[in-house]
Write a structure and sequence with these properties.
Number of domains: 3
CATH superfamily of the largest domain: Rhodanese-like domain
CATH architecture of the largest domain: 3-Layer(aba) Sandwich
Shape: globular
Strand content: 5-15%
Number of strands: 14
Oligomer: single chain
Order of helices and strands: HHHEHEHEEEHEHEHEHEHEEEHEHEH
Structural class: alpha/beta
Length: about 325
């Protein structure tokens, strides 16, 4: 209404009103930018916990009665030592409480009933604050870092809003000399009641229709993306047409003792240069080889950086590669 009034004055007053109109437009642009920024960060505003927390933060907040420390390492690793009070629900490939094999595809979501049962037995409700503690070193590749984000997005998919990842995992916690326990924590079971967020994921057919319309990001290593190397689960080399490459391991600092996320300002700049600001609102599709690295991209873009309308193509390259009818691009940077 205010803009319409000023426009009317501008037309009546002629040239003398140009300065006032220019100032008004500048204020209008500023307000639009501010509102867009607020909207882009709405996911963080709704959270009761930061998406990535430090060992120091957890040490202070460990007494929170609504906090669930979820250790996803193997039962053997957990038994050797864990954060006091942490419960153990291991993430293991190819099948565990967090992932199943379906139609020959690795790292697929478990059925809703099984997932809800897992959360209930772990004492997790949709209002719990869940901090995921993983292993951050891996002799084969930094896949262990992605295990935590895979569990995180599965919790969010199940309707748990307050999900966080412990930066550096148990490795950093122990390296800092913080308290370690060998006493097994026994959760109090609850009946988990939540609703699935199916909007987080996108199917193969939907991806095919979105080529050239949505932003697509491939989280695999550059040589795999470029097509000079193929992975066992995706034997046809190359990437989905128009996909840009953001290798997920570039988001981490890995040492022999632990792995942590790089400075978020650096990651923010990397992503912005690749796909633009969160405010642009264009649909973003992320994928990788089997859905591990892609889960990290989804988590960072959506939960940390505030990008809207981010979808994970869960079938990823393994499913796309199986369908000989679908195109793949080799020897080209998009």
């Amino acid at each position: 209404m205010m803009i319409l009034i000023h426009l009317e004055k501008f037309h009546k007053g002629g040239v003398k009103m140009k300065g006032e109109f220019a100032k008004l437009m500048a204020v209008g642009v500023f307000l639009v930018v501010m509102m867009t920024s607020i909207f882009a960060s709405s996911a963080q505003a709704q959270r009761g916990i930061d998406p990535i927390v430090s060992a120091d933060w957890l040490g202070v907040n460990i007494v929170d009665p609504n906090l669930v420390i979820l250790d996803i390492r193997s039962a053997e690793e957990y038994a050797k030592g864990h954060i006091p009070g942490a419960i153990n629900v291991p993430f293991e490939v190819p099948v565990s409480a967090w992932i199943v094999m379906k139609d020959g595809l690795l790292l697929e979501l478990p059925p809703a009933e099984e997932l809800f049962n897992t959360l209930g037995k772990a004492g997790i409700t949709k209002d719990s604050k869940v901090v995921i503690v993983g292993r951050t070193t891996d002799p084969m590749a930094p896949y262990a870092m992605a295990n935590a984000t895979r569990v995180a997005i599965t919790l969010i998919y199940a309707g748990v809003k307050n999900v966080a990842i412990l930066d550096g995992g148990f490795d950093r916690w122990k390296w800092e000399g913080k308290a370690v326990s060998k006493a097994k924590a026994v959760p109090k079971p609850v009946k988990y009641e939540g609703s699935l967020r199916k909007d987080m994921f996108i199917t193969k057919d939907e991806v095919k229709e979105k080529i050239g319309k949505a932003i697509i990001i491939d989280g695999r290593d550059p040589d795999v993306y470029f097509g000079v190397k193929a992975e066992p689960w995706a034997p046809r080399p190359g990437h989905i047409p128009t996909a840009k490459n953001l290798p997920t391991p570039w988001l981490w600092n890995l040492t022999k003792d632990y792995g942590m996320y790089k400075d978020m300002e650096l990651i923010k700049e990397m992503v912005k240069e690749l796909i633009g600001e969160p405010s642009q609102g264009k649909e973003i599709i992320v994928y990788c080889g089997v859905g591990g690295y892609g889960s990290t991209l989804w988590y960072i873009l959506s939960e940390v950086l505030g990008y809207q309308n981010v979808k994970l193509y869960d079938g990823s390259a393994q499913e796309w590669s199986m369908d000989e009818r679908l195109p793949l691009v080799k020897f080209k940077w998009e």
